[in-house]
Write a structure and sequence with these properties.
CATH class of one domain: Alpha Beta
Number of helices: 36
Bound molecules: beta-D-glucopyranose spirohydantoin
Structural class: alpha/beta
CATH architecture of one domain: 3-Layer(aba) Sandwich
Radius of gyration: 28 Å
Number of strands: 24
Distance between the termini: 31 Å
CATH superfamily of one domain: Glycogen Phosphorylase B
CATH topology of one domain: Rossmann fold
Low-confidence stretches: none
Length: 834
C-alpha cells in the first residue's frame, strides 16, 4: 500500500515550511541566527569573514529552497534534459552572483549595513572556486548561468578538485612560482550540498573477457567510490536553480581491514590514498595533455560516475532504452569526456544487453561534441598500452567501433588506404595511440566549433576527412558567449545602472535580452550621456588603481590610457609581441625631445595570466614583462608616459576589476590559432575597444560593432601556412625583415632588462622559425597602436566608439549561445518552475 505522506500532522509540517527571505528584517534575523548557531560565534567579536560566512549561509538557505523545488519539478515533469560534461568549471565567486540572480542584493546590502558591516568588504572575503584553467572552464560557468536563467533543464557534471588552479607568485627576479590552491581549506563551502548518499562504484584495471553476443565481463582491478557534491546554480530572476554535480573520489573501503589487523598500517591506507588522489588536483595545463595515467583516470572516473547517474535517472522514468535520446543529450566540452562514448556502449551492451547496432544508434543520437582548439599539440591521444591496462573493456569497444567505422569508410572510398590511415581511431606508431577527437566526432550527433572562423577551420583541417565522409550537415558552429550578469552588472554596477536609467527599464529586462543594448546607440550623440559614460570609466580606473595600490603598493596613473592583456600565457596568444611593442614604445620615447614627449598620451599597460608550470618559454615571457616593467617604471624621463604592470595570480575576481577599467584590450593571437576568445567579448561589453588580429571571435565582434570601432592588424589566416613555410625553407634574418623589431631584440639580449642571456631561448623562438609570426606582424601591430593613439586624441569620438561598442554586443550573451545549443542540438525546452 501507499505510505501516507507527509508523516504525522500535515498542518504542522506546512507551518514549518519557510520561503525565501525577501524582507530586510527576516534577512538580518537569518544572518544573526547563523552567527549564533552555524558559526557558534557572537555579535561582539564578529569579523568580516564571520559576517560573510553567516550571510552566505543565509543566502544558501534560499538557494536550497529554489534548488529543491526545481529538482522536484524537473523530476515530476520528466522533460528531456541536457548534461554538460566539463573537466573544468571556473566559477569564481558565488555570493554576489547569487544575490543578483535572487534579486536580493539591495535587501542584503541594507541588512548587512544595519548589522554594522560593509557589503563590498564581505564580498572580498570569498575565495574563488578556480576549478579551471582559462576560457574553456569559464565558458562552462557562463553556460551554467545562462541555462538556469533561460529555465532550461541542464545539469553540469565535473570533478570536485581539492586543489584548483595553482596560486601564482612572482619572485623578485620575475620568475613565476606556483603554490597549491587549497580552496576548501577554509572550512565548509556554503555553495555546495554534499550528497554522501549519492555514490557510484567505478572500476579500473582488471580483465575483460568476451562473452557471446558481443558482450563482455569486466572484473577485478581496483574499485573506487564516486561521491556527489551538488553546487547550486541559480538562474537570474527566476526560481529555476540548476545543479552542477561534482564528483569526489573515495576509497571503496576506508582501509584494508585485513592489513590493518595484521599490523600493516601502511598497506592498509595505500589504496585509500590512491583513490583519493584521483580528484586531488586540477591539471594546470591549457591546450596540452601529457598522456599521464592519473589524468586518464580522472577522465574515466568522472564520465563513468556521470553516466551511471544519468542512466539511473533515465531508468526512473520507466521508458525503454530506445527512448534514451528523447530524454538525454550529453554535451562533450572538448575531448576530455570522450570516454562517455565507449562507456555508454559498455553500459548498453554489457549491462542492458542491447545489441551493438541499437546501442550505437542510441549513443550517436545522444552525444554532442564541441571542439575548442585546432592547435595540434592540444589534440588528445592516449597510448593504447595505457588504455588496455587501465580500461581493458573500453579498449575492446574502441577497436570494435573502429572496425565497423573503417569498413564503412572503405565502402565509400574503396582502396583509399591513406584515407583509412588518416581517419582511423588508432594512430600507428610506438606506441599506438587512440585519437580522441576522431572518436568524439564519429560518436556524436553533431560537432561544432566555437566561432565562425574556428568552425570553418575544424571542417577544413582537423576533421576534413570526416566532413567528406559524413556530409557537412553534422558540422556546425555555435559562437561562444558570456553571461552579462557577471560580466556587466556585477563587475560594472555603475554602468549597469546608467544603462537601466537610460533605457528606462529595470535591469532584469536587458540582462536577459541583451540585444536591447542597441537602444543605447542614439545616446552616443548625447553629450550629457557621454559625460556620464566617461565618468564611470574613470571611476573604474580608480577602482583598479586602488586595488593595485592596496595589493602591490604601487601607484597607477589614472589619467593614462589603460591597455590590458589578460589571459593564459601562451606563445600563440603572443604576450611576447605585446611586451616587445612596449619596449619599442619605450625606446621611441627615449629618443624624443621633451617638447615631443609633451604631445604623447600617457599609457599604462597591464598584464596578468598564468603559465603552465612546465611551459618554459611562457615563463620566460613573464620574466621579461616583469623586468621590463621594473626598468621602464623607474625611468624618470618616461614614467609619466609609460608604465607597465604584471598583476600576479590572475583570477576571475581580478578580471572583474580589470575589465571595466580598460580603454583598450589586446587579443593578438597569430591568425587561425585562437578558437574564439571570450575575454574580448567581456571588454567590449564594458566599452573597452579591441586591438586584435583577424582571429576567433574578434572577427564577429568587429562585424557586430563596426570595423571602425576596432583596431585590426596582422596577416590573415590563409597566409599563415605559407609564411611558416617560407620561414622554414627561406629564412630571412630579423634584421632584414623587420629592423625595428631587431633593435628591440638587441636591447633585450644586451641586458637592458637584466641578464640578456636569460632571454636567449625566448628570443631564439623569434629569430629562428618564428612559428607564431611575430616578425611578420610586428610593424602592423605598432601601426595599430599608433592608430589607437591617434583616435584617443579625439576624446568625444573615442567615447562614442566606446558606447557603440557596448550597444552592439548583444549577440555575445551566453543566453544566445545556450539557446542555440538547446534548440539546434539538444532539442530541449524551458521548464519553468512556477
Ligand atoms: C579554448 C580556446 O583557446 C579559446 O579560444 C576559447 O574561447 C575557449 C572556449 O571555447 O576554449 N580552448 C582551450 O583548450 N582552452 C580555451 O580557452
Amino acid at each position: 500500500g501507499k505510505e501516507k505522506w507527509p508523516r504525522g500532522d500535515e498542518k504542522t509540517w506546512k507551518e514549518g515550511f519557510r520561503s525565501v527571505n525577501t524582507e530586510v528584517p527576516s534577512i538580518t534575523k537569518s544572518i544573526v541566527n547563523h552567527v549564533q548557531t552555524s558559526l557558534a560565534r557572537q555579535a561582539y567579536n564578529l569579523d568580516d569573514l564571520g559576517a560573510y560566512q553567516a550571510a552566505a549561509l543565509s543566502v544558501r538557505d534560499d538557494l536550497i529552497l529554489n534548488w529543491n523545488e526545481t529538482q522536484m519539478h524537473y523530476t515530476r515533469k520528466a522533460p528531456k534534459r541536457a548534461y554538460y560534461l566539463s573537466l573544468e568549471f571556473l566559477m569564481g565567486r558565488t555570493f554576489d552572483n547569487a544575490l543578483l540572480n535572487l534579486g536580493l542584493k539591495e535587501q542584503y546590502r541594507e541588512g548587512i549595513t544595519k548589522l554594522g558591516f560593509n557589503m563590498e568588504d564581505l564580498l572580498e572575503q570569498e575565495r574563488d572556486a578556480a576549478l579551471g584553467n582559462g576560457g574553456l572552464g569559464r565558458l562552462a560557468a557562463c553556460y551554467l548561468d545562462s541555462s538556469a536563467s533561460q529555465e532550461l533543464p541542464v545539469w553540469g557534471y565535473g570533478l570536485r578538485y581539492q586543489y584548483g588552479i595553482f596560486q601564482q607568485l612572482i619572485s623578485p627576479e620575475g620568475q613565476q612560482l606556483e603554490q597549491p590552491d587549497p580552496w576548501l581549506a577554509g572550512g565548509e563551502n556554503p555553495w555546495e550540498l554534499p550528497r554522501l548518499d549519492v555514490t557510484y562504484e567505478v572500476r579500473f584495471y582488471g580483465t575483460a573477457e568476451r562473452l557471446p553476443e558481443g558482450r563482455a565481463l569486466w572484473q577485478g582491478g581496483q574499485e573506487v567510490l564516486a561521491v556527489a557534491y551538488d553546487v547550486m546554480v541559480p538562474g537570474c530572476y527566476t526560481k529555476n536553480t540548476n545543479n552542477l554535480r561534482l564528483w569526489e573520489s573515495k576509497p571503496k573501503r576506508g582501509f584494508d581491514l585485513n592489513s590493518f589487523n595484521a599490523g600493516d598500517y601502511e598497506h592498509a591506507v595505500e589504496s585509500s590514498n590512491s583513490a583519493a588522489a584521483i580528484t586531488s588536483v586540477l591539471y594546470p595545463n591549457d591546450h596540452t595533455t601529457f598522456g599521464k595515467e592519473l589524468r586518464l583516470k580522472q577522465q574515466y572516473f568522472w564520465t563513468a560516475a556521470s553516466l551511471a547517474d544519468i542512466v539511473r535517472r533515465f531508468k526512473n522514468i520507466g521508458k525503454p532504452f530506445s527512448a534514451f535520446p528523447d530524454y538525454v543529450a550529453i554535451q562533450l566540452n572538448d575531448t576530455h569526456p570522450t570516454l562517455a562514448i565507449p562507456e555508454l556502449m559498455r553500459i548498453l551492451i554489457d549491462e542492458e544487453e542491447i545489441p551493438w547496432g541499437k546501442a550505437w544508434d542510441i549513443v550517436t543520437n545522444t552525444v554532442f561534441y564541441t571542439n575548442h582548439t585546432v592547435l595540434p599539440e592540444a589534440l588528445e591521444k592516449w597510448p593504447v598500452p595505457l588504455m588496455e591496462h587501465l580500461l581493458p573493456r573500453h579498449m575492446q569497444i574502441i577497436y570494435d567501433i573502429n572496425l565497423f567505422f573503417l569498413q564503412a569508410v572503405e565502402k565509400k572510398f574503396p582502396g583509399d588506404r591513406d584515407r583509412l590511415a588518416r581517419m582511423s581511431l588508432i594512430e600507428e606508431g610506438f606506441p599506438k595511440q587512440v585519437r580522441m577527437a576522431h572518436l568524439a566526432c564519429i560518436g556524436s550527433r553533431k560537432v561544432n566549433g566555437v566561432a565562425e572562423l574556428h568552425s570553418e577551420l575544424v571542417r577544413t583541417t582537423i576533421l576534413k576527412d570526416f566532413v567528406e565522409f559524413e556530409g557537412p550537415s553534422k558540422f556546425s558552429n555555435v559562437t561562444n558567449g558570456i553571461t552579462p550578469r557577471r560580466w556587466l552588472d556585477q563587475c560594472n554596477p555603475e554602468l549597469s545602472a546608467l544603462i537601466s536609467k537610460t533605457l528606462k527599464v529595470d535591469k532584469s529586462v536587458w540582462l536577459k535580452d541583451l540585444d536591447k543594448l542597441k537602444e543605447l546607440l542614439p545616446y552616443a550623440e548625447d553629450a550629457g550621456f557621454r559625460k556620464e559614460w566617461a565618468a564611470i570609466k574613470q571611476r573604474n580606473k580608480e577602482r583598479l588603481a586602488h586595488h593595485v595600490q592596496t595589493t602591490l603598493g604601487l601607484t597607477v596613473n589614472t589619467h593614462a590610457m589603460f591597455d590590458v592583456q589578460i589571459k593564459r600565457l601562451h606563445e600563440y596568444k603572443r604576450q611576447t609581441l605585446n611586451i616587445l611593442g612596449v619596449i619599442h614604445r619605450y625606446l621611441t620615447l627615449k629618443q624624443m625631445t621633451a617638447a615631443e614627449r609633451k604631445k604623447v598620451n600617457p599609457r599604462v599597460v597591464f598584464f596578468a595570466g598564468k603559465a603552465a608550470p612546465g611551459y618554459y618559454i611562457a615563463k620566460l615571457t613573464i620574466r621579461l614583462i616583469v623586468n621590463a616593467a621594473r626598468i621602464i617604471n623607474a625611468d624618470p624621463e618616461t614614467r609619466d608616459l609609460l608604465t607597465v604592470y604584471f598583476l600576479p595570480d590572475y583570477s576571475v575576481s581580478l578580471a572583474e576589476v580589470l575589465i571595466p577599467a580598460s580603454d583598450i584590450s589586446q587579443h593578438i593571437s597569430t591568425a587561425g590559432t585562437e578558437a574564439s576568445g571570450t575575454s574580448n567579448m567581456k571588454f567590449c561589453l564594458n566599452g573597452g575597444l579591441l586591438v586584435g588580429t583577424v582571429d576567433g571571435a574578434n572577427i564577429e565582434i568587429a562585424e557586430a560593432v563596426g570595423e571602425n570601432n576596432v583596431f585590426f592588424f596582422g596577416h590573415l589566416t590563409p597566409a599563415v601556412e605559407d609564411l611558416r613555410y617560407q620561414h622554414m625553407y627561406h629564412p630571412v634574418p630579423v634584421e632584414e625583415k623587420c629592423p625595428p623589431l631587431a633593435k628591440v631584440l638587441d636591447c633585450v639580449a644586451s641586458g637592458m632588462f637584466g641578464d640578456g642571456g636569460v632571454y636567449e631561448p625566448l628570443l631564439n623562438t623569434i629569430r629562428q622559425h618564428d612559428y607564431y609570426l611575430i616578425t611578420e606582424d610586428f610593424e602592423s601591430y605598432i601601426g595599430a597602436l599608433a592608430m589607437v593613439d591617434q583616435a584617443y586624441l579625439d576624446k568625444e569620438e573615442w567615447i562614442k566608439k566606446s558606447i557603440r561598442t557596448t550597444a552592439n554586443m548583444g549577440k555575445f550573451s551566453s543566453d544566445r549561445a545556450i539557446l542555440e545549443y538547446a534548440e539546434s542540438f539538444w532539442n530541449i525546452e524551458p521548464v519553468k518552475v512556477a
